[in-house]
Amino acid sequence: MNGLGIVAAFAAEARTLGAASRELRRPAELADGTLIILSGVGPAAASDGARRLAAAGAEALLSWGMAGGLDPSLAAGTLVVPQEVISPDGTVFTTAPEWRQRVTSAIPPPRPICSGRLLTCAEPLGSPESKSLAFRRTAAVAVDMESSAIAEVAAEVRLPFLAVRAIVDTATDQVPRAALAALTPETGALRIGRLLAALARSPTEVRALIRLGGCYRSARRALTAVAGSGMLAPAPVRATPGTIP
């Protein structure tokens, strides 16, 4: 065990790390000694996953996966390794600076990287309008549904924290309602029958769904590149993230 514990919401996100199983409800060890858990979607699920990793002996917590873009300048596949993570209630958590530098320095060029703020929301932001509003209110460059909950657990148990997220839908993309309706919250798998039924009701979303598929592939390649660097684990120097009221 190398001390790193990773929380991923979806099986597809975990697979970029080499985790083959969809059943990762308990901490499992990857080939390099990293602990990983598949939490499912949302702050409560992510918090539970982070606590399980800490109880299993993780000495650093990493939020891993995909995110929606809020900054219009960020394209799909951009990596967000934030300096700060904002919770739904506005609490700001800082990430471990030396660890963040270690990870970003190892990402092979010319992969685009951003260190701007990451916002966590309790519900998906699927429309350009809702993303634009969140961008103006928080100055966050991207949004997910798990990172601040993991950061909060890390602060409680005094472990270093970092988030690595890849942009899927950009600030100007409308996330198809059909995709949201077909998503399995526990694993992130698309239920094909439900997807087809939703598209039958809203056939105009087919084009947006095709575009989202391309964006997803860009994000997946970005995460795979970071995982392939072999530098996700922090150096063996513990740093405690701070919390700004």
Helix-strand layout with pairing:
Elements: E1 4-8, H1 11-15, E2 28-29, E3 35-38, H2 43-55, E4 60-69, E5 79-80, E6 84-86, E7 92-94, H3 97-106, E8 113-114, E9 118-120, H4 128-138, E10 142-144, H5 147-157, E11 161-167, H6 177-182, H7 192-201, H8 206-228, E12 243-244
Parallel strand pairs: 1-3, 1-4, 4-11, 5-8, 6-9, 9-10
Antiparallel strand pairs: 2-3, 4-10, 5-11, 6-7, 7-12
Helix pairs in contact: 2-5
Commentary on this structure:
- The chain has helices at residues 11-15, 43-55, 97-106, 128-138, 147-157, 177-182, 192-201, 206-228, and strands at 4-8, 28-29, 35-38, 60-69, 79-80, 84-86, 92-94, 113-114, 118-120, 142-144, 161-167, 243-244.
- With 245 residues, the chain is of the alpha/beta class.
- It is globular and about 50 Å long.
- The relative contact order is 0.21.
- The chain has a single domain, classed as Nucleoside phosphorylase domain (Rossmann fold), CATH 3.40.50.
- Helix content is 36%, strand content 19%.
- Helix 2 runs parallel beside helix 5.
DSSP helix fraction: 25-40%
Poorly predicted spans: 237-245
* N-to-C CA distance: 34 Å
Q: Shape, please?
A: globular
Q: Helix/strand/pairing class, anyone?
A: alpha/beta
Alpha plus pi helix count: 8
Please count the beta strands (DSSP E, at least 2 residues each).
12
Please tell me the CATH architecture by its name: 3-Layer(aba) Sandwich
Sequence of secondary-structure elements: EHEEHEEEEHEEHEHEHHHE
The domain count comes to 1
Supply Rg.
17 Å
From the 3D structure, determine the CATH topology: Rossmann fold
Amount of beta strand: 15-25%
CATH class: Alpha Beta
Question: What about the largest sheet?
Answer: 12 strands, mixed
Query: Average pLDDT value?
Result: 87
Annotated CATH homologous superfamily: Nucleoside phosphorylase domain
